[in-house]
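Regression test case RT-17, inverse folding.

Input:
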């Protein structure tokens, strides 16, 4: 899910927007903008709508928890296929 962060530059009134593909990248962007003294005007996503930084942090945490599971499922399904192939080979001999 993508996230759009709206912010203002120092001493400017117009709002700039940047889109990130993940919540974790949006958190990193917000942190970098805050260090540069930019003001965060909004954070939004197509599914969640407008949100605060706390909600973004929660979504980033959930995203991080889901990522290892997806990788783990790929690894395990690959090893299951490999085991099945070994069994077929053994059955032939």
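Golden output:
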């Amino acid at each position: 899910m993508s996230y759009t962060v709206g912010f203002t530059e120092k001493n400017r009134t117009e709002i700039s927007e940047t889109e990130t593909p993940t919540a974790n990248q949006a958190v990193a962007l917000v942190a970098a903008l805050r260090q540069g003294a930019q003001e965060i005007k909004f954070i939004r996503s197509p599914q969640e709508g407008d949100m605060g930084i706390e909600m973004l942090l929660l979504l980033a945490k959930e995203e991080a928890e889901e990522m290892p599971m997806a990788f783990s499922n790929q690894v395990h399904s690959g090893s299951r296929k490999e085991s099945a192939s070994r069994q077929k080979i053994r059955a032939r001999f």
